[in-house]
Amino acid sequence: MPHLDMHQFICRSDNYGVLVHDHRTGATAAIDAPDAAVIERELQKRGWQLTHIWVTHHHGDHVAGNLALKSLAFGGVFVGGGIAPKILWKLCDGSFVRGFVDKGRLSELMRSIRVGVVLNPHLPLIGAAWVAGTLAETLR
Asked: For 54, 59, 62, 106, which has the most beta carbons within 10 A of its beta carbon?
């Protein structure tokens, strides 16, 4: 039995949300977070707890729900995709992290969440291919 489940669902009128859940560890990742309420509803339907948010790029329709997620991603937030390596200097100069943690009464909590940068611009495709391969094995 495969240990990963991937669930895709309509999120906003023109986008999709994707959750990847690892049954072995209990970890669940949201790939981008276009709408916190929809993602939270999908997590609750499955009894999954969000542990990670994988951010593929910075467009508002992909990150709008990141900080609004009530369950938060205590496993960390990882910025990736093709743009991250091109703006690495900006991600490392401190302004990104300051903006990430400067959330008023939630600032202390935000400081406890690890932030990372994925430098391989092909990682989302590699991950999608791996998941597709895993799912294909279940259909045999």
From this structure: 54
**Torsional class of 8: left (φ above 0), alpha (ψ -120 to 50), beta (otherwise):** beta
Per-residue pLDDT tens digits for 7-44: 998 877 777 888 999 998 898 988 877 677 788 889 99
d(CA 40, CA 69) in angstroms, rounded, equals: 7
Q: Between the CA of residue 78 and those of 89, 98, 105, 133, what are the distances in Å?
A: 16, 16, 23, 23
**Under a CB-based contact definition with an 8 Å cutoff, are residues 58 and 100 in contact?**
no
Domain extents for the chain?
4-133
